Amino acid sequence: MKIKKNSVVAITYTLKNDAGEILDSSVGKESLYYLHGHGNLVIGLEDELENKGKGDQFSVAVSADKGYGNPDPKLVQTVPLSAFGTNKVEIGMQFHAEGPGGQVVVTVVEVNADQVKIDGNHPLAGVTLNFDIIVDEVREATSEELAHGHVHGPGGHHH
Ligand code: ZN
What we know:
It is built from 2 helices and 9 strands; from the N terminus they run βββαββββββα. By secondary structure, it is mainly beta. The chain folds into 2 domains: 86 residues, Chitinase A, domain 3; 47 residues, Thrombin, subunit H (Beta Barrel). Strands 1, 2, 3, 4 and 9 form a 5-stranded antiparallel β-sheet that branches. A 4-stranded antiparallel β-sheet has the order 5-8-7-6, with no helix packed on it. Strand 7 and strand 8 form a beta hairpin. The two termini are 27 Å apart. The site of zinc ion (ZN) has 5 residues, from loops.
């Protein structure tokens, strides 16, 4: 069967930036299972997977517009170091914070004597996502999976 809305799809993926550095990969690990057509993957990748079938392999470059969006300068802020209390603050440290659209991951990008610059943009905002994909499995979702909006069983939620 071909991938369409409400298919459960298993993929093996490798994600690289434009410099060819591997940012993430499932090669040698469990396949990534997802429910197609529900925004569980970035839209540029879901678009490309549409109508593919088991065994298909392809590469696709997803622009930031169809990936994790472009960085929003408003999400970069400087806060006093004292806001972190006695915690050690280092560049690259990440923590969760409340953003306008819910929880966001905030990354420390600069630490000065008394100030910390934090960035609430997605770490891959503004990055072209170069995916190498192998479609491992395609099946229909169960009614329970559709109700929950995610995959159950191998590679999915267990509950
Ligand atoms: Zn569930």
